[in-house]
Amino acid sequence: MKMETQVWSKERGAKVLKDGASFDDYKAKYPSAIKVKHPSMKTLERWHSDSGCKSVDGCWVEPDGECSHGLPSWLLAFGLI
After folding, report:
1. d(CA 42, CA 13)
2. In this structure, are 29 and 46 located in the same domain?
3. CA atoms of 33 and 6, how far apart (whole Å)
4. Which residues form the domain of 76?
């Protein structure tokens, strides 16, 4: 079973790479791209009720905020707030 590659970039947001697409090729086109694990909706709901959220790189931030690295919360990244 092939694992899907989940990514986030400033240019394109949260994406799952298509079969056959390599992360290196994606990063060459979108330099801000990082590999991530997209949180579930249940996790996002829990974070929201906790009055905080992880950013796309794992830092704990305000639900509508960015971390010290300039990366958005997952709620912002998914356009939920």
Report:
1. 20
2. no
3. 10
4. 39-81
CA 67 to chain CA mean position, Å: 12
Q: What is the mean pLDDT, run by run of 10 residues, along the chain of 81 residues?
A: 83 92 95 94 90 94 93 92 85
**57 and 71 inside one domain:** yes
Tell me: do 44 and 79 sit in the same domain.
yes
Q: How far apart are CA 30 and CA 68, in angstroms?
A: 21
- CB 75, CB 47: distance < 8 Å: yes
As for how many domains the chain has, the answer is 2
Q: Model-level pTM? A: 0.82
**In 10 A of CB 34, how many CB atoms?**
15
Task: Indicate if 11 and 34 belong to the same structural domain.
Answer: yes
Of 37, 24, 29, nearest to 11 by C-alpha is 29
